[in-house]
Amino acid sequence: MITEQADLKLLRIFLTIVEAGGFAAAQSDLNLSLSTISSYVTALETRLGFTLCKRGRGGFALTREGQVVFEEAHRLFKSVGQYETKMRALRDKLSGTLTIGLTDNTITDPGARRIEKTIARFMERAPDVTLNVVTYPPNDLLREVVTDNIQIGICSFPKTVLGLRYIPLYDEIHRFYCGSDHPLFDRKDAEIDIDEIRRYRLIGRKSWLGRDLKEFAIARPHATVTDMEAEARLILSGAFLGYLPEHYARQFVEAGRMRRVLPDRLKVKVTFQASLDDSKQPDPITKLFLDMLIADFATERA
């Protein structure tokens, strides 16, 4: 009875010989000498207890038993192949939950649109994965990545944390704005300077760690915010000045509710990155999404 791995090897050799049409014809496929091929067939015949084929001057021909062995072996290896294919499909099937963290108010940013494409491609490739998308301010998002509550965070991160991996994706432009009820709204930029701006209430963004106030050389802001909607609301009140992403402020500018102030000088470029724990290998789900994300943004930059 054929039961051992060595027997299966002999059967595979026999199949190759039959499909090639003889010992000599199978040499190149098996990369074996004629004597070695002959010894393998003899070993298989000994194992089975009967002759499989006729060989010699009369040419190669299967015996009746050899024909049966060939057909059954062919079915056997076809079944093995199907089994391996099914097992590989089970092994490679992606299921589970992937949690992605985003920062607020990036949906209007043309630079961020590739995220939507990545999500669509990912779900097509991994339809059984449950996608969990959460939105946090930058500092909170960073904390969630560090504590492994989020597998991938996408944000302009306020600082670099040891043990995290950061992959640059795209840049976002921020400009300085005032609302339509602010005293500077109707003033020309030529009439405004930094000293003039310093006289008014300025907004500080917690995640920027004072970088947005450096230009104005003030000790502390007159208001602090954690997200763009809060900052926009303060600017629209007419009581404060502050930075906003250009794409996000455009709706208010076009409606006549805001204007840029000193756009050539007060401009900040921030880089959005994907971040994840670099201390361990990402699981297959996380790796697939990350690879797709990097590829999509590389295409966009190109």
From TrEMBL:
Gene3D superfamilies: 3.40.190.290, Winged helix-like DNA-binding domain superfamily/Winged helix DNA-binding domain (1.10.10.10). Keywords: DNA-binding, Transcription, Transcription regulation. Residues 7-63 form the HTH lysR-type domain. Pfam families: HTH_1, LysR_substrate. InterPro entries: LysR_HTH_N, LysR_subst-bd, WH-like_DNA-bd_sf, WH_DNA-bd_sf. Belongs to the LysR transcriptional regulatory family. This is LysR family transcriptional regulator.
